[in-house]
TrEMBL record:
Domain ABC transmembrane type-1: 98-288
Keywords: Cell membrane, Membrane, Transmembrane, Transmembrane helix, Transport
GO biological process: transmembrane transport
Name of the featured protein: ABC transporter permease
UniProt GO cellular component terms: plasma membrane
Organism per entry: Roseobacter cerasinus
Pfam family, one: OppC_N
Transmembrane segments: 28-49, 100-125, 211-231, 267-288
Superkingdom classification of source: Bacteria
Amino acid sequence: MTNTATPVELKVETPFQRFRAEFFESKIATAALGIFCIIVLLAVLAPWITPQNPYDLAQVDVLDGRLPPGSEAFPGYIMWLGSDGAGRDLYSAILYGLRISLTVGLASGVIALLIGMVIGLVAAYAGGRVEALIMRIVDLQLSFPASLVALMLVAALGKGVDKIILALVVAQWAYYARTVRATALVERNKEYVEAAQCLGISRFRIVFRHILPNCMAPLIVVGTVQTASAISLEATLSFLGVGLPQTEPSLGVLIANGFEYMLSGRYWISVFPGLALLLTVVSINLVGDHLRDVLNPRLKK
């Protein structure tokens, strides 16, 4: 009589499954990610779920200006969050403002990441005078506050979304370059790079096919944090009056519009856009902070 044992299937956990399991262990990070996804969804669906287009001056009535939350507008809909001094429905203006903030933050972050990534990789792999020259430029860039650099550039270029994105890219690329260079210097001296050099593989392939994938973890963390910083910086520039024009009500513009009414009791004009900005930035930072813990093995307990 022979015993036939059924083979036991071993489940191999992929790196993505391990990352997902470790990330969702934190309830705070999971809640922050959920809040951020809701914010993005509301911003994307803004034209369909808001009663007013704040960009269309034909839909804005000055007689509806400074209405408290829950008031009825002249067209008949309810302004649940009130209105600003120009008569814009704050609920509509906040969602449209989130579209601008997220667009500016993501666009400037991606462009700055690509530029900084290439420059950092070139500096780390080339070494010598090339690395010294690039890193002195990076040090010079980082010696100035990002807000000051962006403020000077926007003041010189003028108002507009494209000009703000350009200013934020110039202000932020050095952070990515330094991060990639530090990680790439460690990877450059490892055995797999020496083996690739002995096989005669081109420098371009070694840098972008072998070294770059191992630099992505810190890049993701820095990119997340810098995206939140870009959103805050855009709101700061718009609040100071050098960012977006009044016809494009970003969160910074909305906060600035209501600042003069704070002492008169019309708190909602600045408070509600400020809360939307705070919720967006904090949720991104919480996700980025937990990503740092998950992607860095040295920080794991």
